[in-house]
Amino acid sequence: MDAIVENKSQDNRQIVEPRARAGLIIPSVNRMSEPQFNHFAPTGLGIHIARARITGQWRKPAAEMKDEITRSAAALADSSPDLIVYHCTDSSMREGRTGERTLIDIVREATGVDTVATSALVIEALRALGIKSVVLLSPYQSNDVIVRYLEENGIAVKADIALKLDGHAFTAVTPRQWLELARQHDRADADGIFLSCTNTTQIEAIEDIELALGKPVVNSNQAVLWGCVKRLGAKLGTIPPAPRLGRLMAQ
Known about the structure:
8 strands; 2 domains
């Protein structure tokens, strides 16, 4: 009994009531967004998650996924988020800006909450860093969807490397391996590196890649966290820089 009391007395951590709340709709197979957002989110930002079957065998055109997305969005809205993110790079980019708008409209109609998609936040992050051309790295079978969306938004893809992995193998690629891939495929005519996917360890490699290449790096989860912090800044107040998340969040 004494040991239990002692352990409790040594644990002075407190659960802080969020000053702002971000809700994420993520693919049902995603295992990395929750731990990464909870680890890297600044104090005061609450992260709430809802899953939806929107990728892999359940992938359909945006309009045909309305019922599935609506169910997830409505359940997520019960947590009273200040902002909702449709958080899947591939499906938010798959039908270009038109499909992106469809997805956002579905969520807003179901919740009445301000909504943005991962796709838009990636472009916003790239532009904030002055990146007009990228080397694209992903675990996907193909990067065609991502390349089309980036180029539709004025971002030139100088090289794209898709590892052609099964979805459940995405998380097995280590941060060190993402660093080595960036080193191997970097090009002088690329302004930066885009690490595409929400279900990988890529976010942990950002700082090392920037140090190794001297170029800015954008990753899907990093861009979304940055976009949430920026939009919810009035509620969050001043937050410390996060250099582990690269130049995008070093200020």
